[in-house]
Design a protein that fits this description.
D-Maltodextrin-Binding Protein, domain 2; 2 domains; three-stranded parallel β-sheet; about 20% strand
Length: about 260
């Protein structure tokens, strides 16, 4: 009986493991189930944010909807912490990670990126009246960043004193409270969050003219999703060239820099 029970327990563990780590998405599997499962962290306006009814809206969600329509499938959005998205994509829990992902050589070791759809910059945000006026002033200052972002990686690799937070909301509160001296975040999201904050009573924030760095944005898939990525690349290139992507940025009152300018 003990041997039988042990065998049953082992089989259950295998089944649980198989359920926890599904096969990464392919073009065939996505079309077969009729949906594209997206993992995102909705604290990154204008790319992703929560609407009043709890749904996720933003530039990337609209772009993903356009891609899903071209694929002939529905879009399913899963809300997760930013720093767990890529792992979930890699183990097959989600088909694609869409959350303001910058394409980096380090990330490319683990995931497959689509062609970029825009170029963005990392902005430096400080409290109004701060003596910090540019990158040169950050050498001995404490900087807030969101965990798992390229802002965090860049600051750490360049030996800046860094304080990491799960969400950009907390990173923003840190500079407002004086816990940190500056906040590094993607420029478009910085513009929206700073504008929202400055419309309220209280301490104001300022985006410095000098950016930390510039980088392309794209969607992240598992390495095994090559055929799906190849198909979606065609859609993204088409949506960039026909002005659809620029129109989405205009819809959210965000400036747009085409990836084609980097070619």
């Amino acid at each position: 009986m003990k041997k039988v029970l042990s065998l049953v327990l082992c089989m259950m563990m295998v089944l649980f493991a198989a359920a926890a780590f599904a096969a990464p998405a392919t073009l065939e599997s996505v079309k077969a189930k009729g949906e594209l499962v997206i993992a995102t962290s909705p604290d990154f306006p204008p790319f992703e944010s929560l609407s009043g009814d709890g749904s996720v809206t933003g530039i990337e969600m609209d772009l993903a909807a356009a891609v899903a329509e071209k694929l002939g499938v529905k879009m399913k959005v899963e809300q997760v912490n930013f720093d767990s998205i890529l792992l979930g994509v890699m183990n097959g829990s989600y088909d694609v990670g869409i959350s303001g992902f910058s394409v980096t050589e380090e990330r490319k070791k683990n995931v497959l990126f689509t062609n970029p759809y825009c170029l963005a910059a990392q902005a430096i945000v400080v409290a109004e009246g701060s003596p910090i006026t540019g990158k040169a002033d950050l050498a001995d200052k404490l900087i807030s960043v969101q965990t798992g972002t390229t802002a965090e990686v860049y600051c750490m690799q360049n030996n800046y004193q860094t304080e990491s937070y799960t969400s950009n909301v907390d990173a923003e509160l840190a500079v407002l409270s004086g816990t940190v001296d500056a906040w590094v975040i993607d420029d478009l999201t910085a513009a929206e969050m700073v504008a929202t904050n400055n419309a309220k009573d209280g301490k104001k924030l300022v985006i410095l003219p000098e950016a930390m760095t510039t980088e392309p944005y794209a969607f992240a898939f598992a390495k095994e999703s090559g055929d799906l990525v190849e198909t979606i690349n065609g859609y993204i290139d088409e949506l960039v060239k026909d002005g659809t992507v620029a129109g989405l940025f205009a819809k959210y009152n965000a400036p747009y820099t085409s990836p084609e300018t980097a070619k």
